[in-house]
Amino acid sequence: MAAKYVYGVKGKDDQGRNQYLRPNDEPTPFYLEQAQEVVRKQLALSGYRLAAMLNEVFSEKK
User: Fold this and answer.
1) How many CB atoms are closer than 10 A to CB 56?
2) What's the average model confidence in pLDDT over 21-40?
3) Which of 7, 11, 21, 50 could form a disulfide with 25 if both were Cys (CB 3.0 to 4.6 A apart)?
4) Is residue 32 one of the residues assigned to a domain?
5) Are the CB atoms for 5 and 11 separated by under 8 Å?
6) What torsion do the CA atoms of 17, 18, 19, 21 make, to the nearest 10 degrees?
7) What b/e readout covers 7-45, taking b as 16+ CB neighbours within 10 angstroms?
8) Is 20 contained in some domain?
9) pLDDT at residue 51 above 60?
10) pTM for this structure?
11) Number of Cβ within a 10 Å radius of residue 5
């Protein structure tokens, strides 16, 4: 039986329950790919928020 890796899930136990990554477990390649995609999106969003804040702070107030 091939284990299917979805996000923090590393496979199923004997009773069909999900087994999640635990501290010191090595993340699967799929987990790392998904995490990198989330990080890219979060960095883009934080950049937009920073730009909006800087535009507000340094805008000309009339």
Assistant:
1) 9
2) 83
3) 21
4) yes
5) yes
6) -160
7) ebbbeeeeeeeeeeeeeeeeebeebeebeeeeeeeeeee
8) no
9) yes
10) 0.58
11) 17
Question: Residue 40: what pLDDT?
Answer: 95
What is the number of structural domains in the chain? 1
CA 3 to chain centre: 21
As a whole number, mean pLDDT of residues 27-33 equals 78
pLDDT of residue 52: 96
Range of the domain at 44: 26-62
CA–CA distance, 46 with 40 (Å, rounded to integer): 10
Residue type, 39: V
Q: Are 10 and 19 in contact (CB under 8 A)?
A: yes
Tell whether 4 is covered by a domain.
no
